[in-house]
Design a protein that fits this description.
- The protein has 87 residues and is of the alpha+beta class.
- The protein has a domain of 58 residues.
- It is built from 3 helices and 3 strands, in the order αββααβ.
- Strands 2-1-3 form a 3-stranded antiparallel sheet.
- β1 and β2 form a beta hairpin.
- α2 packs across α3.
- The longest helix is centred in the first third of the chain and has 23 residues.
- The termini are far apart.
Length: 87
Amino acid sequence: MKKPVLVGILIFAAIIGLLVYSTLTLGGQRVEVCMQFNGHQSCRTAKGNTKDEALRTATSNACGDIASGVTDSLACERSEPVKVTWK
């Protein structure tokens, strides 16, 4: 095998390895958040690099399931969670 081809394969393998590693180590914090809004309740789990990021993502996902429209979603996200469970 020629040297440039071998170098190309090694670089490609290194990039794939880096992508796999970064994907597996993403999200050091995991949380389940339950939100209640307009008589509906939804629980969602999310991961994040920080606790704030994980909590914000789980809250947004739960509110997206039970609120309709931007105004309701923002109002839901500003309300207190019914339950927060760190995993």
